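Dear Dr. V.,

Thank you for agreeing to look over these. As mentioned in my earlier message, I'm a first-year student in the group and I'm still getting used to reading structure tokens, so any feedback on how I've presented them would be very welcome. I ran two proteins. I've put each sequence directly above its structure. The first is here:
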Amino acid sequence: MLKYLIHVLVLGLLIVSFFSCSDGDPFDDPVIDRELGDVEGLHAVEFPTPSNGTWTYLNPENNRKFTLRIEDTRFVDGFVYRKLNSSEMRLFKIPLEPLKDKIPDMQGQEVSDLEDVIQTLYKVQEQIAEGERKGVSDEELEPLKVDQKQLRSVIDKDFQKNDFGLLTNRATKEFTVQKKDDEWRIFENFQQPFIIRKEDDQLVVFTRETFDHLATNGLVFRWKGVYFPASIPIKSRYFFKSIKGYQEAALDVYLTLLGEVPILHQSYFIPQKMWDFPLIVGKEWTVFEKVSVPTTLVIRRVVAEDVAVDVPAGSFQTFLVEEVVVGIEDVGQPDETEENEEGKSGVKTDSGKPYIPPAHYWVAKNVGVVKYDYPKYIPVGSQPKIHTFELTDYNLPGY
């Protein structure tokens, strides 16, 4: 009995000492209270990952905005990993102003602004669905469907003003409105929903989008062991940082179905090494390698240091890191062709060349990534579109 009590006491002391070794969260980075001096490169302690740390990024071309936040932990394959959450992408704002084209009162409700339009469309939609369940004839439902079409058109006009046509730029010519708590969601078949929230005297529109190189180009989410060739939005990533590197082991993704969007957790076969510390010019490492056909290799390399970058969050001296996706077989440069035996032009294959332009990351000490860009792959013979995001705000407790 005494031996058992001694074991419990020792275990308790170990737990207390573990949780008291840092000020608060035991997974927090140590507080930087002194410079590293003339030590070369950017070290792990200078790549902050504090609990509740946030980074907000903006695409200056289209004003899309999102925030990353570190919070919580999760067991992944028997190990504890930390959670990096991604917010929804903010797209645009719509002021709640009186409608220019007056709509007759519908459903016993005055329709004066876009919020009224959305609420009324929801009611009309529910009445049509109820009528169809009860077997009401199309002729009897026609007045409701006319109202539905008119209300959809009004919403579409406001979205078109912000380059998001709901009826004109989509495969389907209709959409549905759903209500969840204090927000509205606009759904189309197999599309990520538009999420509408009221903030002060305006409606703010969000969606779930990919905003990084690998996820945008279908090199993150797997289906039956094969990378699914689509942009699947990521809700959370699970990582572990040591003095030698920063690895990701799993992720949560949004899967779009009709109606509510479920979240699927998926572990990597092998953790991906996103950062290899210290960052020193000339260093190169493998993020991950897929050896099954079709094979893929992702490499990061540090190509420059002391690169001056100006972003909304400030001016920084940075390390420039390049990320390259290398095709090991049956791929090559998208703008190079060769004639095959039949005299037809085809993609020139070269197992040592990147087959798309690289992504770039500008990393500042004690801040993290302050700017990055990446290509969206498109068919051979065209120029990929480059997406750029810049840091607008950050909050790093302890730094």
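The second protein is here, in the same arrangement:
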Amino acid sequence: MRIIIVGGGPVGCFCAAMLSRRGSDVTIVEEHGKPGLPFACTGIVTKEIFSILDSIKNQDDAVPVINEIKSCTIISDKRKAKLPVHDFIIDRIKFDQNMAKLAKKNGASILYNTKFMKLQRSGKKWLASVISSNSTRNNEDKNIKLSADIIIGADGPVSSVGVSAGLINPARKRFILGNQVRCEADGYFDTGSFEADLTIRKFFGWVVPENKKIARIGIGVPTDGRNKPKDTLKSFLKKVSGRYGKLKIIDRQAGLIPVFSPWIKSQNKDRTVFLLGDAAGQVKSTTGGGLIPGLRAAAILSECIQQGKNYDLCWKKSIGPDLVAHNIIKWKLDRMSDRQLDGLVKDVSAKKVKSVLASSNRDKPLKMMLSLVMNNPNLIKYVI
């Protein structure tokens, strides 16, 4: 079976590795020249990532951890609370490179500097039109048509594969714009804790330490024209510098974060075109994290292709309920006043709540919410 995956990010590469191990002939089409670039991610993950990668043996070094986080400081207008977590800060560039190596190791090939343009039918097969900017004798771009039985779009929030196959309309999708800088501080960051600042409304601001001197600092705002991302980030950096001293910007990253919709079409009728990861909106609305859901969906898709199962139904049954729960939590947070957020931060500071959070997995919010309400009924006012 010939399969083309458009998008050489970690989700696309992981899917390629899984499919190649199952005997498929897989080619990844990637428009950039190197894996991991451009870099546009906070790089904070839960331990769930190790469980997912256990599906491919001997991959203990696949996740390059640069810092381990034991707490999260939630900040509202007049309150803050330090809550227990167990997260990991990873080197996203190296992680992406490791996933590309994993894909190749299992038999997939990768075409770098190759941009997908459109799909067209050719009998029972698909022809993917691409433009390769790899060096040629005349130093000109080459127009190429690649034939495949199956096309997978792992090509980001505004998926060209999804548009070409008629699965998505970008004008109807909702996005968050993430705007982040890596900064070196005069002071010292708390390497064991990251910050989530709820005063940045409709999403949040974050301070994620790589080490004592360098942190990833950013904000997310809806792309509805009501907010100015640059001004919001500038104001947030000023606030952060008040705690950690003068900040020197090392580099900048920005990118669109899709808002999950349970109604998205992630496959065509004859199950020969599929969307994966950000292209399918497989993202946690509360945090903007798409790596864990995307990797989980990649494993599901590889199995569905090999066994002839309905991918759209399978991933929505497995991952969908938790992604919907994230949507509900974000919907509630977006509608809280500053005073209500202060009350929430106060209530989650309770000892029983911290005990539940210490043993919970935020990638499984339904189970976590149930445990929280059972241990502290006062929290039910925030979920109904």
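From my reading of the second output: The two ends are 48 Å apart (CA to CA). The CA atoms of residues 116 and 260 lie 24 Å apart. Does that match how you would interpret it?

Kind regards,
E.
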